[in-house]
Design goal:
Layout lengths: L11 E2 L4 E3 L3 E5 L9 E2 L3 E6 L8 H4 L2 H8 L4 E6 L8 E5 L2 E3 L8 E2 L2 H11 L6 E3 L6 E3 L24 H4 L7 E5 L12 E5 L2 E4 L17 E6 L2 E6 L21 E4 L2 E4 L6
Antiparallel strand pairs: 1-9, 2-8, 3-4, 3-7, 5-6, 10-11, 12-13, 14-15, 15-16, 17-18
């Protein structure tokens, strides 16, 4: 009797898609847990250690020597942490990053089983995909994620996108310009610099040649996408900023510059 071929994979595995950060511990009271919290500090303290069980025969067989060995302090230094006496609640703060691609097995040795899994877990529209970094839904034609700014690595498209050529407008090269704003008592010409294209790399050569604070390699990138302009920092020292003259969306890990001081923005409400 012929053996029936199974469509179930004998090897099936998935990559971890939940990434936990380090945790920070705080001491607080239950009533004010959302208002005030004090970091739990790590301190050193001395404790009395135990004696070794592997004693010499001369000590083990002599009661007086054994008592003298037991009475030794044998002090040791250890790390200790606890909330203060005024607190009654330990608050633990951490983040969880949910990665995309949970529907794609990392290993599957049966093609039929693999296709069935992808059919059952396909929940995005045909013209959408999930960003590999932040997991948010984006258009499948995006080069950069509009939410986190990371360059999008498109997967192989196995299905046909219907009528996409009919709905796309005519490809027109976008234009933009930058104008230097002189500082007070600075006498320089206010020259407008014109740029074109959907992706523009800014550096010292095409902005201000004499300014050594602008890198000569890649300082920033201006991207035109879905009818909007986006600014991406490409500098090694992360020295590209935008002045907040209007309401600007901020997301966790954004750097806010107040005066000459930088602050890192975090929130567990998003």
């Amino acid at each position: 009797m012929a053996k029936k071929e199974s469509n179930l994979a004998s090897v099936l595995s998935f990559e971890k898609k939940l990434v936990l950060s380090d945790g920070y511990m705080y001491g607080t009271t239950w009533e004010k847990r959302n208002e005030t919290a004090r970091p739990v500090m790590l301190v050193e303290k001395s404790v009395r250690g135990t004696i070794s069980n592997r004693l010499k025969d001369s000590v083990k067989n002599d009661p007086m020597k054994l008592n003298a060995e037991v009475e030794k302090a044998n002090l040791q230094t250890v790390d200790s942490a606890s909330i203060s006496l005024n607190d009654d609640t330990l608050k633990l703060s951490f983040t969880i990053k949910v990665l995309s691609g949970v529907e794609h097995p990392s290993a599957c040795n049966n093609e039929t089983h693999h296709k069935k899994i992808e059919e059952k877990t396909s929940f995005l529209p045909e013209d959408k995909m999930a960003c590999q970094e932040c997991g948010k839904e984006i258009d499948i034609t995006c080069s950069f994620c509009p939410h986190c700014g990371i360059r999008v690595h498109r997967p192989t498209i196995r299905r046909q996108i219907k009528n996409i050529a009919e709905t796309e407008p005519e490809d027109i090269t976008p234009h933009c310009s930058l104008t230097i704003i002189p500082e007070e008592n600075e006498n320089i010409p206010s020259e407008k610099m014109e740029y074109e294209g959907k992706s523009i790399i800014l550096n010292r050569e095409n902005t201000e040649v004499s300014n050594r604070t602008i890198t000569s390699k890649e300082q920033a990138e201006i991207v035109f996408e879905d009818g909007h302009w986006y600014l991406l920092d490409r500098s090694e020292l992360r020295t590209t900023f935008i002045q907040a003259n209007r309401k600007i969306e901020i997301i966790p890990d954004d750097i806010i510059v107040l005066g000459d001081r930088r602050f890192k923005f975090e929130s567990d409400s998003l």
